[in-house]
Amino acid sequence: VAFHDDQVTFRWRDSAHHNKKRLITLHVDEFLRRFLLHVLPRGFVRIRHFGFLASRRRGALVPLCKQLLASLPAATPAPLSVPAQPSPLWTCPLCGGPMILIERLTARQITLRAPPLAEVA
Q: I need a labelling partner for 88 at 20 to 30 A (CA). Which of 12, 23, 35, 108 fits?
């Protein structure tokens, strides 16, 4: 509705009071923080309810799920055996020694660090 002196005024619906429309004024940083909570990362798609939580089937399937979960036999915990030393996640292919994780890279960082392609003359 308005933007003045780093303050954003916008209209919102108060669901606690029968969706009555109200105005609220926030600092621009807080407004952007709240707004960006609703933005999905690139490549993500919002799926609200599917499967047994889908609106069409929830009434029949949720009670069925509860009934099936209640009828499961109680699981007995397996005895825990404590190994003397935890095995490493990765071993060196040359010497067989444990490899230590130093840094994780995203796909973008890997492409940025890749060596330049050799030019064919």
A: 108
Write out the chain in H/E/C secondary structure.
Answer: CEEECCEEEEEEEEHHHCCEEEEEEEEHHHHHHHHHCCCCCCCCCCCCCCHHHCCCCHHHHHHHHHHHHHCCCCCCCCCCCCCCCCCCCCECCCCCCECCCCCCCCHHHHHHHCCCCCCCC
pTM: 0.39
Maximum alpha-carbon separation in the chain: 73
Distance CA 21, CA 31 (A): 17
pLDDT in tens, 26-60: 999 999 999 998 888 888 888 777 788 888 888 89
Residue 24 in contact with residue 13, Cβ under 8 Å? no
